[in-house]
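Hey Z.,

So I finally got round to the siroheme thing we talked about over coffee. Here's the setup:
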Amino acid sequence: MINPPSESTEKPPHKNEQLKAASNYLRGAIVHDLEDASTGTITEESAQLAKFHGVYAQDDRDLRAQRRKEGREKAYIFMARIRVPGGVCTPAQWLAMDALADSHANGTLKLTNRQAFQLHGVVKGKLRPAIREVNRALLDTLAACGDVCRNVMCNPNPHQSHLHAETLAIAKAISRHLSPRTRAYHEIWVDDRLVAGGEPDEEPIYGKTYLPRKFKIVIAVPPSNDVDVFAHDLGFIAIADERGGLAGFNVTVGGGMGMSHNQVDTYPRLADVMGFCLPGQVVDVAEKVVTVQRDFGDRVERKHARLKYTIADRGLVWFRREVESRLGYELGSPRRFEFADTGDRYGWVEGAGGSAHFTVFIENGRVKDAEGQSVKTALREIAQVHRGDFRLTANQHLMIAGVTAADRPRIDALLRKHGLDRAHGATGLRLNSMACVALPTCGLALAESERYLPSLVTQLDAEVEAAGLRDDAIVIRMTGCPNGCGRPYLAEIGLVGKAPGKYNLYLGAAFNGSRLNSLYRASVASDAIVPLLRPIIRRYSGERNPGERFGDFAIRAGYVKPSGSPTDFHSEPDSAATASSP
Ligand code: SRM
Ligand code: SF4
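And the result:
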């Protein structure tokens, strides 16, 4: 049953709906296009379907102008996104990804902020062999993108291991339950032939047209909100009982970051807390939430097709009733919870059972050897001796987890040898910085992000150090466009690409991820960012109340109003609101 909201009923479904329906469960002409040696890319239709298989058709945008001049086709490449439910992988899997980055991709490994790996720069001829290797390592790229449930995230901190072990198991169960059932993935990428005689596929949860849009699920374990639970379509907030065991989960629905510049009917939205469920009910609740969105999400206008718009249009009360009627029982009332922060805890943390865990700061999740740094080599050498596991964090960093007391000296020696023991000595600003990929691979980027934020932070470091704020955690995030991949609208300082060298500057989000920011200045030129932030940083240093966070100060000092409505992301504050700005 597909029942789009009333405003869209006059128009036909979006063309992707027909494409999905006619694709024979995500096969389409992908194989044909992969075998077409006349071009380095695939057709637009196949590109849309390939996303469901975790594959993005891209081109190296740095080379576009040169190629055009030479009359050659674009420098086509592919990005493969590898699912890692809960972010946990083994050292052997790490080594496999590390090797693939060199043999099949651009020599770097990207850790995403949804706890997945990305391989960039894979040329067409190497795509199938690369994905086959991924599967050989017992990982996959299925449903890492596309209109399905993506990689299921989970707080990776093992220092709360009694809760963590349970929540991780639940994250994996959700992931298994909501994975597409189509055998197309194995046929196309792994087995190179029809699997098991080609019986018709079935998608009991999704149906032939899958979901109206991408769908993201996450589990948070308070007091850490490292996964930014309110940014996702569906979230589960673990609630501990009096003895520290797992009582159940508050259920959150309708979060999302993406918007388009100057289109006020698109906006970031924080998820609502809808109710409470028991641990044994989580998978069922997830399935029912997904099916309500499957049936009522907008299949006409893709910019209006995320769950956040279904809930904004129809109301949380309606949504909860619809979910409960499918569950056959009522959800409980939400329990009390409190989040402290959204960041990672770097360095060594003692864990339960005598093991310890080291979180490595990896700037913007890019694992590479460059400019006198050997992060990739370091992590390879560690993976060769490590007997615990690796945990990709939601902030694009990496935890070397489960190090025994006996193994710790040699892990420590490797961290020291490659300088990774010092990386977390950076300023509180850098340690809480995050950028999306953007140029040169992202086809949607309007401005630089991953390649620019580190140098901007270096400039801002001088300001925070001068203001005596070296060790103060301030969350700064940048994206190359308003799609919000770096979750910039949840940053105390958010920078969102508008055009080459121009960014919208947002201020005022809560440090613990519970309040969005608001637009402070639109289209700020790169060289005007530091002069704009300098006086605010100085005032914050001199005038803040004890314990007051930068985002809270930006509101109290009148730089922005607390975000309240969608227009807060599109219009600059009026003069009255900024009266106290210097
Ligand atoms: Fe994203 C699209 C990268 C997390 C919202 N995202 C893209 C694409 C695939 C561009 C494209 O469609 O052609 C980017 C690939 C760039 C590249 O070259 O690698 C891209 N997104 C990323 C990653 C790698 C950013 C990072 O540096 O970590 C993250 C991969 C996560 C993963 O492992 O699955 C990533 N993207 C996010 C997040 C954050 C999150 O989920 O916590 C968001 C905001 C939350 C949300 O979904 O609302 C996000 N990405 C988008 C959107 C806007 C969706 C919307 O509702 O409007 C797009 C564009 C789209 O879907 O049309 C997009
Ligand atoms: Fe690309 Fe925009 Fe996402 Fe950055 S925010 S990775 S520029 S889609």
